[in-house]
Amino acid sequence: MRKGAVLILLAVAVCMVFTPSAWGKNDAIKIGINAPITGDNPKVGEGSKYAAEMWLEDIKAAGGISVGGKKYDVEVIIEDNEYKAESAVRANTKMITEDEVMVIVGPQSSSQAIPAGDVANNYETPMISPWSTNPDTTNDRPFVFRGCFLDPFQGPVIANFVSDQFGFTKAAVLYDVAADYPKGLAEEFKKAWEKKNGKGSVVAYESFTTKDADFSSQLTNIKRSGAEFFFAPQYYSEVALIVQQAKELGWDKPIVGSDAWASADLLKLCGKGCVGLYFSTHYAAKGAKGATKAFIDRYNSKYGYVPDDVGALTWDSLRIVQAAIESLPKLTGKIKKDRKAVRDAMASIREFDGITGKMTFTENGDPIKCAVIVKITEEGEFEFHQSVCP
Amino acid sequence: MTYFLQNVVNALQWGSFYALIALGYSMVYSILMLFNFAHGDIFMVGSYIGFGVAAALVALSAAGVVVLPSWLIFTLTILVTMILTAMLGMAVERVGYRPLRDAPRASAAITGLMIGIILETGNLAILGARRVRFPDLIESVTYEIGGVYVTNKKIMIVVVSLLFMVAMQYFVSKTKWGMAMRAMAYDYLVVPLMGVSINSIARLTFAIGSALAAVAGILYGIAYPVLDPYMGVLFGWKAFVAAILGGRGSIMGATLAGFLLGFIEIFVAMVFPSTLRDLIAYSIILLILVFRPHGFFGEPYSAKLRL
After folding, report:
1. For a Cys staple, A343 with which of A96, A126, A236, B142, CB 3.0–4.6 Å?
2. What would be the CATH architecture of the domain defined by A27-149+289-369?
3. Which residue has the higher pLDDT, B109 or A374?
4. Whether B13 contacts chain A with CB within 8 A
5. CB B228 to CB A40 under 8 A?
6. How far is A168 from chain B (nearest CA, A)?
């Protein structure tokens, strides 16, 4: 009996020692980052991490975030979601319940942001996904926000661009049916294209499944369909394979992409095959001005490459979070109350001037902002082609 | 018609990979009665070693240290990678399987899974999560023959795979070492009595199987140049299916089954949405196995020898 009591006491003591909140009052503001550090799109995680590091550097230099005249220290917690939906959910749950973060920035891709957003909303923790363009991420979730435009906007942008630029009427789509982002965007594009060119104008609508490496039978179908171009709303590592295989099957017509193409690694993986192709994205690094250029130059000198849109959007999202926290009169120290206050502050931001453009927020937590069409140049840069605003 | 022929070409390339990897599986499975679940990951490591060797040779050549023509770079890459990967295979056998030779078969199979995971995560730890692009060892040339598009790479991949299969067939059926291997497959208890060392045959089997996986890895890198640490997992499983489908002890069987799998996958994807591809493909294989439980060329008695 005595032994049992001692063991229980010991167990309690161990729990106390390893519970961070018992280490004494720590009133730093904790920001959680949910990003794919490993997994299928590690470059996305890297961009998020670097942008957060730069942001934290600025905050530290300013001595913290000031709320109601008091300076608060900031702590950034980065959790790896391995580019998997279940890991993203786990990362969010951990950061909310164990680390007690005030706000979560991420996950980046809709495939992870949609399920993870549900967790954040249920725990009443504000979350902002910098890069997720699928409407379901924020839909009916008062605690979830985003930093980019939506696919119902991006789909028509691409459809209009192709019509205006090339005058085509017959389109094909090749997309991953097992991931939320490509599937959602493929549907939006199809809807927009058929609205413009009539029913049956999407002559091939071919799908594959995540992790597939051979697309030859789908591409053969696209080729046979007589399409004048095809649209591939895929991530950069798949784009490299798709473009090469299309070329090897004798495809010499345009291939058009979406914002998931915009990775600093695209050209490295794709080689010369991707030169001259167009895709829609959030910002164009080449020819940027003002604060955008300052951000790009600083990132480039620090990490040795031009940031992709994920980095820029993560930066903007963190600045939105910062603006929301700074607008509060005070922090109560009670995490639940403060989270609610931050959410309300984020929801009341109506306009924000970010490095990826000016944005105004809707009731739903979605920004209204412009998209750009970029062209991949010979040097592997993403060159501004045109800007499309809602 | 051209549409059909184009898909035949697509399937031949895709099937070559299944066939080559299935061959290595089949060797180990037939001779040692062992499910080497790490084989898919050995294929992955082979691909990465090939990437390293090729990148080094290309860099040396570009720097002018030793100027090599591209065909020589390609041949050297294959040779060096085969040797290095064979050494990895032998190490896997020594560390993971030899100590478990008298353990239950399930333990050995689990060891294979673990070695696979160690190889994947080890690669992740050493090289990081970034994708790498396999260097362009061969300038891609596309030929059009009556509306069917074929590249020089595709032809080479199919020809090289077939060559290795013929070579393996010859080795196992015509040489002394091959005879020892067949004897092992037949009865591993008697083999030592004939003065053949089980250990050296097991080592040789693993070396050959891994070298074949290395060839598959390099050819894969040429056809699908984006490498990632988990690319071997799915391939391993599918090639395993092909090895079983081909039948124990049959090199021809594994080859045929590998190509069959490639053909089924490509042609199902041609007609149906991709979500149904694996469902239909593996239902067909299940059916085949129901009617031919020992695979195409497997001999019914052999399965009783050890299990």
Report:
1. A126
2. 3-Layer(aba) Sandwich (3.40)
3. A374
4. yes
5. yes
6. 24
A328-356 pLDDT per residue, tens: 888 888 888 999 999 999 888 888 888 88
CATH superfamily of A151-281: Response regulator (3.40.50.2300)
Subunit contact A248:B142, Cβ cutoff 8 A: yes
B58 touches A at CB < 8 Å: no
Greater pLDDT, B1 or B237? B237
Complex prediction ipTM: 0.88
Which site among A43, A214, A272 would you substitute to test the B interface, given the most B Cβ atoms closer than 10 Å to its Cβ?
A214
pLDDT digits 0-9 by tens, A34-64: 999 988 888 889 999 999 999 999 999 988 8
Report chain B residues whose CB lies below 8 A from the CB of A207: 273-275
Q: Where are the domains of chain A?
A: 27-149+289-369, 151-281
Contacts B133 to A, Cβ<8 Å: 240, 268-269, 271
B17: domain range? 2-304
Three-state secondary structure readout of chain A: CHHHHHHHHHHHHHHHHHCHHHHCCCCCEEEEEEECCCCCCHHHHHHHHHHHHHHHHHHHHCCCEEECCEEECEEEEEEECCCCHHHHHHHHHHHHHCCCCCEEECCCCHHHHHHHHHHHHHCCCCEEECCCCCHHHCCCCCCEEECCCCHHHHHHHHHHHHHHHHCCCCEEEEEECCCHHHHHHHHHHHHHHHHHHCCCCEEEEEEECCCCCCCHHHHHHHHHCCCCEEECCCCHHHHHHHHHHHHHCCCCCCEEECHHHCCCCHHHHHHHHHCCCEEEECCCCECCCHHHHHHHHHHHHHHCCCCCHHHHHHHHHHHHHHHHHHCCCCCCCCHHHHHHHHHHHHHHCCEEEECCEEEEECCCCCEECCEEEEEECCCCCEEEEEEECC
